[in-house]
Amino acid sequence: MSQATATRTAKKLFVFALAMFGFGYAMVPLYDVFCEVTGINGKTGEISVAEVGAVDRDRLVTVEFDTNVNSALPWKFRAAQYKTEVHPGEIAEVVFVAENESTHAVTGQAVPSVAPSQASLYFNKTECFCFTRQVLQPGERKEMVVRFVVDSKLPEKISTLTLSYTFFEAPEGEDVEVTDTIQPVKANNI
């Protein structure tokens, strides 16, 4: 192989590798957009209160709550209630409680999902602790609020859906924004 051919081949391989790196880098935001549009992976939407539509008073939908904590996070986490019934189109509010069981401050991030996955297209949050990272001091316990709307266009065949949160320890070294919606819980046991 001549020097010129080897140089051209090396340049082509470099451009190909750079293109593959760019494609891989773009996959995460593209996947997030794809999941939001299709509802795959249980990703939920976010809307403002002004975008909430009409309330369907003739229908009730059961929303169940599931809470999980990654084993690397020394927290307890639960919903204040197991389930609630809502009229599609109305704003509902649910309280979740988290407690840091460690002897040091820990930052956590909640990842939500909705099942069945088709229902995630019709489940929108107006306020959620999952939008920002949460910091709990040693032994601290907090109430965290979620306000949501089940869209009145939810297919009739879906009468029950599950909102699930899994808390993970957030990476250190980054600024943490804590929402105003988090209030300390009084001396209740989790």
Brief account:
This protein is α+β, with helices and mostly antiparallel strands.
Structure description:
This protein has 190 residues and is of the alpha+beta class. Helices cover 19% and strands 37% of the residues. It contains one helix and eleven strands, in the order αβββββββββββ. Strands 1, 3, 5, 7, 9 and 11 form a six-stranded mixed β-sheet that branches. Strands 4-2-10-6-8 form a five-stranded mixed β-sheet, with no helix packed on it. The longest helix is centred in the N-terminal third of the chain and has 36 residues, at 3-38.
Characteristic key phrases:
6-stranded mixed sheet; 190 residues; 5-stranded mixed sheet; 1 helix; disordered C terminus; alpha+beta; flat; single chain
Number of helices: 1
Unreliable stretches covering 5 or more consecutive residues: 37-43, 175-190
Described by strand count, sense and barrel closure, the largest sheet is:
6 strands, mixed
* Beta-strand proportion: 35-45%
Please give the share of residues in helix. 10-25%
Mean pLDDT: 79
Note the run of SSEs as H and E. HEEEEEEEEEEE
- How large is the radius of gyration? 22 Å
The total of beta strands comes to 11
Structural class computed from helices and strand pairing? alpha+beta
Which geometry do the CA atoms define?
flat
